[in-house]
TrEMBL record:
A Pfam family per the record: Glutaredoxin
InterPro entries found in the cross-reference section: Glutaredoxin (IPR002109), Thioredoxin-like_sf (IPR036249)
Gene source species: Polaribacter filamentus
Glutaredoxin domain residues: 3-61
Coiled-coil annotated spans: none
Protein name as annotated: Glutaredoxin
Length: 90
């Protein structure tokens, strides 16, 4: 499975999606559209000349500006779960 996330540093959805992906054991690629000119231009192609984010790519599927609920559904469909550590039991 190949996952790519386009986003922007400090953007709430981008941060939330990255945090989730970081908590899984699945590798992904993150591209900041404010720093990566190739990702920025690709975003413009996807959104009719406008840079929008986040954009999620999973294998051959593209999810344009998914909401949190949509992102959670995508992750559920992929059977990805965040690792939760509870140190209280240690």
């Amino acid at each position: 499975m190949k996952i790519v996330l386009y986003g922007k540093q400090g953007h709430a959805y981008t941060v939330a999606f990255k945090n989730f992906l970081n908590s899984t054991d699945v590798p992904y690629i993150y591209k900041d559209v404010s720093k990566d000119s190739e990702a920025r231009e690709h975003s413009k192609e996807l959104y009719d000349g406008v840079v929008k984010f986040p954009t999620l790519f999973v294998d051959d599927k593209i999810y344009l500006t998914p909401t949190t609920d949509e992102f959670n559904k995508i992750m559920q469909d992929l059977r990805l779960r965040a690792w939760i550590f509870d140190f209280r039991d240690k």
